[in-house]
Amino acid sequence: MHINSISSRVLQIVLAFITFFCASAMAAPVLQEHSIKIDGKQRRYYHLSDPAAITPGRPVLLVSGSGCDDFAVRLPMFFERYPGAVNVYYLEKPGVAKNADGSKCSEAFLAADQFGKRLSDHLRFLSLEPELKKMPARSIAVLGFSEGGAVAPYIARDSNKIGWLATAGSGGLPQSEEFLIFADRGVEPYAKPFSRDYFLQVYAEIKKDGKSRKKEFFGHPYAYWSGHLFTYPLNVYASLNIPMVVAMGEKDESVPIESGHALRDHFLKHPEKDFQFVEFPGASHGLRSGDRNGAQEFVAGLAGWFKGDKKAFELR
Q1: For the chain, what is the radius of gyration of the CA atoms?
Q2: For the chain, which terminus, N or C, has the lower number of CB atoms within 10 Å?
Q3: Edge-to-edge strand list for the sheet holding 275-280
Q4: Residues 6+ apart with CB under 8 A from 225
Q5: Biggest alpha carbon distance in the chain?
Q6: Residues near 282 by Cβ (< 8 Å), separated by ≥ 6?
Q7: How far is CA 225 from CA 64, 130, 219, in A?
Q8: CA-wise closest residue to 106 among 94, 116, 117
Q9: pLDDT at 310
Q10: 104-139 pLDDT, tens per residue?
Q11: Residues near 120 by Cβ (< 8 Å), separated by ≥ 6?
Q12: pTM for the full model?
């Protein structure tokens, strides 16, 4: 074979490799829909991944916030700035229709919309989904947004597959205390037209009639609130021995920043724990401030955090 032919062949191979790696780097993650049977009922779940990735990224179980909107349509947006191979699993809530805008929830959704159900569903999902089922202990991350951030610590506590816990828009205090903090601060509607006394009265009623789906408070039945109002996430965080990170917006209008500070202050007294608190200045519940998309920044930081980078969430 002539030298020129060899050189030409080498050049072709090099160009092929360059093309392949460029295509891999530019390929957008793909969202695939699947089905799984949980407690005898078919459920939808989604897998967001990079088909061109040579090595799959860290598996992430994502737990969304409250409501019956179709979160799956927004899921890829959160990972647009993620610098590694995306590998995210998301279990849709029961009774959520495709493309639902959340304005009207189905009876199936309302019947299942309870803290204990969300927790047990995700634990079952971890044990049944084919790829997650094969994963060894402490190899999966759980990422919770808002209400999902309140459920995520319990998933980490109850599944030995979880090796990292990340939440955004969720703190460490019981939600019942969070509403009182807003009322004491004079934040509407918690202080006006409602009040601390009103909340305490309703809390007592919910404790007495916590299974009721007819009585409502703040747009949800008592059966929903009995599972959410009185859980104490800080105690669960304190029991964990895995890396943990919590992100909140300074001006969060749904969860008072004091709830995040409770976690921060607890772990300042326990430096032996691997915990970080990330506060986005001036940001909302969704970690937004002006044109800044803190949610995307936070999610992008997870890639380095999984590898032990202590500066992955440094804000600029």
Answers
A1: 22
A2: C
A3: 30-38, 41-49, 87-91, 60-63, 140-145, 162-168, 244-249, 275-280
A4: 206, 210, 217, 218
A5: 91
A6: 249, 250, 251, 289, 290
A7: 17, 33, 10
A8: 94
A9: 86
A10: 999 999 999 999 999 999 999 999 999 999 999 999
A11: none
A12: 0.90
CB atoms inside a 10 Å sphere around CB 281: 11
pLDDT at position 25: 46
Tokens of 78: 């959160």
**Which of left, alpha, beta for 287 (phi over 0: left; psi -120 to 50: alpha)?**
left
